[in-house]
Amino acid sequence: MTELKRDEATWWRHAVVYQIYPRSFQDSNGDGIGDLAGIARRLDHLVTLGVDAVWISPIYPSPMKDFGYDVSDYRGVDPLFGTLADFDALVAAAHGRGLKVLMDFVPSHTSDEHPWFRESRSSRESPKRDWYVWADPGTDGGPPNNWLSEFGGPAWSLDAATGQYWLHIYLREQPALNWRNPAVQEAMLDVMRFWFDRGVDGFRVDAVEHLVPDARLRSNPPDPHWRPPMQEARALHRAFTAHQPEVFDAARAMRRVAREYEPERLLIGEAYGTLPEVMAYYGGEGLDGFQLPFNFQLIFADWRAETIAGLVDAYEAALPEGAWPNWVLGNHDRPRIAGRVGPAQARVAAMLLLTLRGTPTIYQGDELGMVDVPIPPELVHDPMEKNAPGQGFGRDPVRTPIPWEEGPTAGFTTGAPWLPIGGAAPVAAQARDPGSMLALIRRLAALRRAEPALALGAYRTLSAADDVLVFERRHGARRIVVALNFADAPRPLAEGGRVLLSTHEGARETGRLAPNEGRVTEG
């Protein structure tokens, strides 16, 4: 094996990204909520894990109606998490360990407590009135159109004092910014510069598909396949609220800011959509959009070898020339992979994630095999669950604190944790167990780092049949074969070769895969 030589300008191509949900990573002051000093304390866990970059979910000052995605000041740190000095110290500590730091950028909406919105709401003549999306009532005196909030109900709220509705694709406390206003766009691009100047290496750009809804405010058409109890927001096709042409102009504007810095900063776009819609975020022929529009297909896929093979092949074929792929299994909004496919297949999924071509992102806790933690009704925090209780839309179960050690608060806090702790054996116990999920992820990340064929090599599906997916990765003369058994029973394996790594300790070069086994071999 030859250690991979790394190009600083495109470091993200060979990187493994790790998402930190700061409220639940590590508490340092006993208030039961994770913070920046806590993250700094646990950076060595990430180094040992073998990741290259951390993406930190929002830490900005916020009323926390949507837990940081309702921003009241884009240039500060909420006291819950610490101070700007704490953030600067964290960046320095991460960089000192060779870790990149990515922040969450929330450009489509602010908090209703942001000074911009307070000024905008003060009167129709306010100089910041056009910084948000306002509209007169519809002909029936109600909302201007039928757009729905992602949290349920209309996407419009009436401001009685001025007689107009403000748009909120999310909570009513998250008014939509008007990106058609050049002053808004420049103000938000300056926010990016503020954090880049502090040493931030890139952004994950939140909810970008909703950044610039239809200027004519045309109503969305109904989805004939929608039925209760499906999420109310899915009752309409997002024809006029998502992926509008001006969204891609905004993505290009953000990329131009990223290119003002050396090395160029990374932009990862969150955009849920069809394959062609997601591919459009890479930009035109010059790939002048986001370097990595998130690829969420594995989160929603039917967990079968044939389905996964078809999904990967279709995604690879759709990539614009020169575009770099990426893969995720979960995040702070979606049920955990170990709960979706079971603990045995979660190991297979981990091997898939870290051996496919492209940049993988690991959601905190998935390296432990965490499952969703049940949340009693009296402990629910998530507005999604509060608005539609008991329907399975709540996100608290995937946001519970990391268990670091044995004990009632699992080393996460010395106080009362903001959500129950559980879902997996703690880090300390797994670190002692060579057969643990943590040990497997560490070995996979180390192998990926050591093997250019896995980090940068070409991909080709070899077969997908009888519950087994087999694919190869090639870099120069080096050929590596990955075989994944999606069945809870042994399966024959035609491909042989020296075993580099298996999800099962002690696997040998045999013509069969054990139940739920994933195996990496030299071709």
Write the layout of secondary structure elements.
Layout: E1 17-20, H1 36-41, H2 43-49, E2 53-56, H3 84-96, E3 100-105, H4 115-122, E4 134-135, E5 156-159, E6 164-167, H5 182-197, E7 202-205, H6 245-258, E8 266-269, H7 275-279, E9 292-293, H8 297-300, H9 305-318, E10 326-328, H10 337-341, H11 343-355, E11 359-363, H12 383-387, H13 427-431, H14 437-450, H15 452-455, E12 458-465, E13 468-475, E14 478-485, E15 491-492, E16 499-502, E17 512-513, E18 518-522
Parallel strand pairs: 1-2, 1-11, 2-3, 3-7, 7-8, 8-9, 10-11
Antiparallel strand pairs: 4-6, 5-6, 12-13, 13-14, 14-18, 15-17, 16-18
Helix pairs in contact: 5-6, 11-14
What does the model show?
The chain has 523 residues and is α/β, with parallel strands linked by helices. It is 25% helix and 15% strand. The strands form 4 sheets. Strands 9-8-7-3-2-1-11-10 form an 8-stranded parallel beta sheet. A 5-stranded antiparallel beta sheet has the order 12-13-14-18-16. It has a 3-stranded antiparallel beta sheet with strand order 4-6-5, with no helix packed on it. Helix 11 (343-355) runs parallel beside helix 14 (437-450). It is globular and about 75 Å long.
**Sequence of strands across the biggest β-sheet:** 9-8-7-3-2-1-11-10
Gap between N and C termini, in Å?
A: 13 Å
| Rg value | 23 Å
Largest sheet: 8 strands, parallel
Strand percentage, roughly?
15-25%
- Write down the oligomeric state: single chain
Structural class: alpha/beta
Tally of strands? 18
Percent helix:
25-40%
Low-confidence stretches: none
Give the overall average pLDDT.
Answer: 97
| Global shape | globular
- Compute the number of helices: 15
